[in-house]
Amino acid sequence: MLVIPRGFKFSGISCGIKEKGGKDLALIYATQPCVACGMFTQNKFKAHPVLIDIERLKEGEAQVILANSGCANALSGKEGKEDALAISRQLSSLLGIKESHLLLASTGVIGKRLPVEKINKSLPLLIEKIKEEGVGDAAEAIMTTDTFPKIYFIETKIKGRGKKSIRIGGIAKGAGMISPQLATMLCFLFTDACIDREALGESLKTAVEGSFNRILVDGDMSTNDTVIALASGLARNPRIKTDSDNFPLFAESLTEVARELAKMIAKDGEGATKLIEIRVKGAWDAKDAHRAARSIARSPLVKTAIYGGDPNWGRILCALGQVKVKFKPHRVILKIQGIKVFENLEPVIKDRKELINKLQEKKVLLEINLQHGHHRTVFWTCDLTEEYVKINAHYHT
Amino acid sequence: MLVIPRGFKFSGISCGIKEKGGKDLALIYATQPCVACGMFTQNKFKAHPVLIDIERLKEGEAQVILANSGCANALSGKEGKEDALAISRQLSSLLGIKESHLLLASTGVIGKRLPVEKINKSLPLLIEKIKEEGVGDAAEAIMTTDTFPKIYFIETKIKGRGKKSIRIGGIAKGAGMISPQLATMLCFLFTDACIDREALGESLKTAVEGSFNRILVDGDMSTNDTVIALASGLARNPRIKTDSDNFPLFAESLTEVARELAKMIAKDGEGATKLIEIRVKGAWDAKDAHRAARSIARSPLVKTAIYGGDPNWGRILCALGQVKVKFKPHRVILKIQGIKVFENLEPVIKDRKELINKLQEKKVLLEINLQHGHHRTVFWTCDLTEEYVKINAHYHT
Asked: Are B24 and B144 spatial neighbours (Cβ–Cβ below 8 Å)?
């Protein structure tokens, strides 16, 4: 049973944007205006829905998110903006809510126009279908090359008066164009916590930093990456502010939800067969830890070796050595699947067969200890397979 | 007919380093000590031959290069250094030249020990076989996953007294772990020009900047990348110094040779079917031009789209927009194969079929005009195919 935060309803239908069919239009509906925050792609070419949301979120309130897959509405010219606004107007009038309370998100092929008429015609059905349990349909409707919908919900008891429980959850999509610079996919987070805008914004930053900024599929940053958080307040807890006792707890819980969704995205990278977790410790500072982990996560040679179940550990150290990270080569220790493979500048594998066997597992753990400081990080990526190439060589046509 | 620079002989044989057989040991032999310069990987984990060469080149003279494929002699522990020195001692005594005049280079799997005995036993045959026409054998013996040997030689008339001709040439290997940070593969350049060390060093910097620093296969920087230039002086031209009239001409010629070899490396990237040339102009400064070109060259989504002959131009702009480069999105113009596809933030493709047809060609040209300054660059890469994944998932085992 999913513990849907109070005050949220969802629906997802097929309206014909995706040529191959399948759900492609999602509605996330709050029963009343929510405190709202967003984080968006840092790509200079931003999709129209991203530009519209950035503008609308300045007020810090929103009630509805309309998201589509199959068309990114990015680099689609001035008409692309008109398309988005025409849909927004129609939805706003059907729901009777302010346009500024309505957010948009699109994902799919870049440079294509949205089929406005198809979408607008489908809005009444989409609205009719909203319900709490519609979250699965909504998660499915934002999928592109994802192989499974990404949904995660938790319930947490908070401290103080009445020991209220708050609920936090989210849905996300990922698969390709995944690189950890701010928000890097679509993710919608919901909570019924009563929280002010600043505290929600700060929590979202922490959550994104600890989740989506630590995953990478192919290192490409999309034009459409969007993370939006809505808080309905219906848990009726004492309002959480940045100086509240419950603020760290809330931020942690939001991070947990975001991290689980992020790991699902990494695991479901285009063509992926394995989830790779990279733990770096002993780094001089947080940036060094991040840079080291990211360079390994991005290396096609590391990713293909892990796909092949090949204990080619030299590629991991090579990827580490190629970025500007402070460390002394002779102090570096590398473990793969818990087995020490390199220390004191010497290969130290005792049982190569055991290592090869452990590399067959669906989750591969790489641990790097730089022994140069006290900072650490965790990063997630996936292997690189022929299937990734197949998917992306022919995605457009 | 190759115009081999006067004073150079070569050989290449199979000595059993490569498990699958094939030539794997190359000797480059100058009949007398040469002015010598080198540029090496910036990876913190440097292979033993790289560390040895850096030390030996401090004197600025060298006469012989011994190179092997099949084993990188990198991250191979203290024994790896001993292995390299044992081979060096043996070769030095056989040839009767100073050890400090002998350079080493290795390429292949990281973390493996060199078969010292096999190599030392093969040295007499390797020496016996040296001849001018041996350059093809030497180029073949440094190949790993390369599909063709990379050789390029030119002859140039220089200005002044007697209008002497000088010859410049080189051999190179590439294929995987190719990323443009300094020298990123093995390349040996030879000239019979009479040139002093400073002028040779400056020319080499220019040449590497305009060639190997502008190619990228997978973005991984090897532990073994090496570019060495040897100048025999046997052209008997007036010695070229950095303030000579002939200095720019020499640097340009060396750059030409390096660039042609670099393009061969990009074209022959692991699994590649197409050479991609990326021209960026209108950049604010040289760094911006480089960053923009490199981001596009590195993007797996761009590389797979081109492999698939898919005019998915949005991915090119997306790769451009994700790096820190100064430009205004509305001023960017993108051409593919000479056809304008994007301008004024609008897609402007008139004939999609023509574009698709032109993308079938073996060479694909991407032109980006940022219209934000006066700097430009050219960059080369290759497409990303299933074959790249196949090669690298199972290279080790």
From this structure: no
Answer whether B337's CB lies under 8 Å from B249's CB: no
Question: Which residues in chain A have Cβ-Cβ distances shorter than 8 Å to B396?
Answer: 305, 308, 310-312
| Interacting residues of A45 by C-beta distance below 8 A, sequence separation 6+ | A74, A75, A223, B317, B318, B320, B321, B329
Nearest-Cα distance to chain A for B3, in Å, is 37
The residues in A 215-234 lying below 8 A from B, measured between CB atoms, are 218-223
Q: In this predicted model, what pLDDT tens digit does every residue of B220-273 receive, in sequence order?
A: 666 778 889 999 999 999 999 999 999 999 999 999 999 999 899 888 888 889
| Number of A–B residue contacts, CB under 8 Å | 203
Full DSSP string of B83-147? HHHHHHHHHHHHHT--GGGEEEEEES-TTPPP-HHHHHHHHHHHHHT-BGGGHHHHHHHT-SS-S
Among A244, A314, A320, A326, smallest CA distance to A288 is for A326
Domains of chain A, each with CATH number or no CATH = 8-267 (3.60.70.12), 275-393 (3.10.20.340)
Task: In whole angstroms, give the CA distance from residue B144 to residue B126.
Answer: 19
B310-363 pLDDT tens trace: 888 988 998 898 888 999 999 999 999 999 999 999 899 888 999 999 999 999
CA proximity to B105, closest of B64, B164, B153? B64
Sequential DSSP letters for A346-390: EE--S-HHHHHHHTTSSEEEEEEE--SSSEEEEEEEE---HHHHH
- Tell me the sheet residues that pair with A165: A157
Q: Are strands B226-231 and B186-191 parallel, antiparallel or unpaired?
A: parallel
Give the total residue count for chain A.
397
How far apart are alpha carbons B70 and A206 in whole angstroms? 47
- State the Cα–Cα distance between residues A155 and A5, nearest whole angstrom: 8
Q: Compute the half-sphere exposure of residue A205: CA atoms within 13 Å on the CB side of its CA.
A: 7
Question: Would an 8 Å CB–CB cutoff place A295 in contact with chain B?
Answer: no
The Cα A177–Cα B370 span in angstroms is 23
Inter-residue contact A397 to A296 (CB < 8 Å): no
- Partners of B299 on chain A (C-beta within 8 Å) are 218-220
Q: CA-CA distances (angstroms) from residue B394 to B89, B115, B347, B387, B389?
A: 35, 22, 41, 11, 9
Contact A144/B at CB under 8 A = no
**If you write DSSP's letter for every residue of B258-312 in order, what string do you get?**
HHHHHHHHHHT-TT---EEEEEEEEESSHHHHHHHHHHHHH-HHHHHHHHTT---
The Cβ-side half-sphere exposure at B270, using a 13 Å CA radius, reads 25
> Tens digits of per-residue pLDDT, B125-165?
999 999 999 999 999 999 988 889 999 999 998 887 777 89
Q: Do B109 and A318 touch (CB under 8 A)?
A: no
Chain A residue numbers with beta carbons less than 8 Å from the beta carbon of B317 are 45, 75, 110, 223
A337, A341, A273, A259: which is closest to A303 by C-alpha? Answer: A273
| Contact between residue B277 and residue B382 where contact means Cβ atoms under 8 Å apart | no
A273 shares contact with chain B (CB less than 8 Å): no
Confidence class for position B184, pLDDT limits 50, 70, 90: very low
B394 touches chain A (CB under 8 A): yes
CA distances from A123 to A30, A89, A94, B157, B161 (A): 16, 11, 8, 75, 84
Closest residue on chain A to B315 (Cα): A110
**Measured between beta carbons, which residues in chain B are less than 8 angstroms from residue A327?**
44
Give first-to-last CA distance, chain A, whole Å. 40
Residues constituting chain B: 397
**CA distance linking residue A186 with residue A245, whole number of Å:** 30
